[in-house]
Amino acid sequence: MAPPSRSARAAVLASSVQRSKPTPYPSKARSALIRRAIVIVLVLVALAMITISFRSPTSGALHSVQGAGSTALRPFQIAATRIAQPFRDGYDYLAKLSSAESENKRLKREYQQVREDAIRNRAAAVKAQQYEKLLHFEGLRTFPQDFRAINVGVTSFPGNAFAHSLEIARGSSSGIRLNSPVVSGDGLVGIVSNVFPDSATVTLITDPSFWVAARDLQTGVRGGVQVGPGGGGTLELSEVPKTQVVHQGDELVTDGTHTARYPDLYPYGIPIGRVSSVGATDTAVYLQVQAQPFANLGSLDAVAVLVPKKR
Fold first, then answer.
1. Nearest of 87, 107, 110 to residue 99 by alpha carbon
2. Topology of 207-294 in CATH?
3. pLDDT at 123
4. Over the stretch 196-227, which tens digit does the pLDDT of each residue have?
5. 41-71 residue pLDDT tens
6. Higher-confidence residue: 195 or 20?
7. End-to-end alpha-carbon separation of the chain, Å?
8. CATH class of 77-205+296-311
9. CATH topology identical between 77-205+296-311 and 207-294
10. Are 222 and 256 in contact (CB under 8 A)?
């Protein structure tokens, strides 16, 4: 078989190959116009369908199509509702939990406020009750007529079991004097032992150095009241001969002045305490009479300082 001639091969290679023209891409402006046109058409169609739906009778063809569409989509709606229900329940639970926590915090704040108000009211009621007792004591017929009462608040209490004094909030600028008796609405508290312009120190009847002349209201027996040998707030009516009679439950009051030349610091009739026990030993000369003070020395908020009207 003879090879093709060179001239024929050259003719084939020299011939131009016809290629298809590339498809031109649409321009961006043209694509934007198409999208806008589609949106406008869809909006017009939607408006037209809404208008036809409102103006058409309830049993028209459009309503039939809508009913058929709703029936066809009903299973999908039910499935979507069932799938979304757990998420909806979870959201509702978290919302209610957050609301409950906020409500709980609010109620705690309100409870704390009410509790603080109640404590303040009780404290104020206690102070008011003590001042009321002081006014009642001042109005008694047994109140010493030669003295006037200066009611004052207590600012500090005994710091420990070995301290037997307290501070009050008024001093010499208010007329308080040294060695003035101090009482509560229940009975004798002590005596002013130090005075400053705006405060004063009161030595309590439980101090070992304290002593006051006293008498038994029921039997008339006299003696001196001082702290008992055992301490602990128990008082003792000392120097009572064994021949005298003192009963448990008798009331002890200050004995007052016997001679004008030597006036007593304490006027007559201030309640001191109640006899708690009476005893005696064969070798003792005096009775062992113990008493409990009327004044509650551990919870004083207000006291009255008795100042003589005449120096």
1. 107
2. Thrombin, subunit H (2.40.10)
3. 67
4. 999 999 999 999 999 999 999 999 999 999 99
5. 887 877 776 776 666 655 556 566 666 666 7
6. 195
7. 165
8. mainly beta
9. yes
10. no
Q: Per-residue DSSP letters for the chain?
A: -PPPPHHHHHHHHHSPP-PPPPPPPPPHHHHHHHHHHHHHHHHHHHHHHHHHHHHS-TTSHHHHHHHHHHHHHHHHHHHHHHHHHHHHHHHHHHHHHHHHHHHHHHHHHHHHHHHHHHHHHHHHHHHHHHHHHHHHHHTSTTS-TTEEEEEEEEEE--SSTT--EEEES--GGGT--TT-EEE-SSSEEEEEEEE-SS-EEEEETTSTT--EEEEETTT--EEEEEE-TT-TT-EEEES-BTTS---TT-EEEE---S-SSS--SS-TT-EEEEEEEEE--SS-SB-EEEEEESS-GGG-SEEEEEEES--
DSSP conformation class of 297 = G
- In the structure encoding, which two tokens stand for residue 217, read together? 């209201």
Phi-psi region of 308 (alpha: psi -120 to 50; beta: other; left: phi over 0): beta
Pair of tokens at residue 72? 């066809």
Indicate the domain borders of the chain.
77-205+296-311, 207-294
> What token pair was written down for 234?
């128990």
Q: What is the pTM of this model?
A: 0.60
